[in-house]
Write a sequence for this structure.
């Protein structure tokens, strides 16, 4: 049986605008070019999978029910532009959480590769043929540890004027 190749995406700052802790579907705004890039990648037979740290759940900022609504809205906005995701994985845990059931360390929390490994198992994904795309070194590290090639999206933001060293296979300015 042939394994699938996938593109794993971070959510905030990669596919959608990152307003801080997103806690309502009305806040979801696609980044320019995100839907088009997803469409093209699907056309190349890649599975498309979101892997997102969502410590806002552990911090009491957003509920898992609201997160489901946010992800439904993301899928709705993508569908309106002819794009789609195969699956969304998220990690609601954080060691400093205020909600007891979510206050813990987790193998799913990037930079650990747990979400990518779970997706590979559930969706028959060949990680060596897959890519992780994100806007943070955590995303790159999770992808590398899982055995994927990596792309860091580094928009033209350099607060200090210096660019930290990057361990990604490629660096891009946006999804296109």
């Amino acid at each position: 049986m042939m394994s699938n190749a996938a593109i794993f995406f971070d959510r905030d700052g990669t596919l959608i605008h990152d307003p801080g802790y997103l806690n309502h579907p009305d806040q979801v705004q696609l980044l320019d070019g995100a839907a088009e890039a997803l469409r093209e990648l699907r056309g190349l037979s890649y599975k498309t999978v979101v892997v997102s740290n969502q410590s806002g759940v552990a911090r009491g900022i957003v509920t898992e029910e609201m997160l489901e609504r946010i992800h439904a809205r993301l899928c709705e906005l993508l569908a309106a532009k002819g794009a789609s995701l195969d699956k969304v994985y998220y990690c609601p845990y954080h060691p400093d959480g205020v909600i007891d059931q979510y206050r813990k360390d987790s193998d799913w929390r990037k930079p650990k590769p747990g979400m990518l490994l779970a997706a590979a198992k559930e969706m028959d994904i060949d990680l060596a043929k897959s890519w992780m795309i994100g806007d943070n070194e955590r995303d790159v590290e999770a992808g590398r540890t899982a055995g994927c090639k990596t792309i860091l999206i580094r928009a033209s933001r350099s607060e200090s004027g210096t660019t930290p060293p990057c361990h990604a296979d490629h660096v891009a300015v946006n999804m296109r």
Notes: The chain has a mean pLDDT of 92.
